[in-house]
Amino acid sequence: xxxxxxxxxxxxxxxxxxxxxxxxxxxxxxxxxxxxxxxxxxxxxxxxxxxxxxxxxxxxxxxxxxxxxxxxxxxxxxxxxxxxxxxxxxxxxxxxxxxxxxxxxxxxxxxxxxxxxxxxxxxxxxxxxxxxxxxxxxxxxxxxxxxxxxxxxxxxxxxxxxxxxxxxxxxxxxxxxxxxxxxxxxxxxxxxxxxxxxxxxxxxxx
Length: 206
Description:
By secondary structure, the chain is mainly α. It contains ten helices and no strands. The protein is elongated and about 60 Å long. The N terminus is likely disordered.
């Protein structure tokens, strides 16, 4: 019989494993209602970022096509950040801390091969925050606070090291910032072109 293929994985526990175990230990000692709240936010909170992007688009649409273009681009920017994050995961191949350190966690430990670095959730949340900030400063600030809460929750429930979520925030924010600047530079031309098509209702309420 053929021996099972061994997949080499990076052990990130030497970076901040002690911080991770401290946070997970604190989570185990915390009140049940707090753990339930954080676990629910960690699992389902990304839906809020979709809602905030939709709200940003709806409000931008009322200001006209030029303002609506960056709002329409926001989901595409988030997808691009996710793609880069996924590429980095495949390159680094860091094992989940709950698997390496054999800790008891609030959330079930992902299967082997579901790599830890960078955090998908943190990347998506940070990218959404920056993309929304380029549309609305007020909504962007709210989204940024939610993004930090999402990043922290992924360590709290035990599925990521702190450096995983820090890297995720950096990847998401930097990718979104670069792409949002590029979108802003060509927003006039894109707005003129799209308003001449059937997509005009997506860019203006008038």
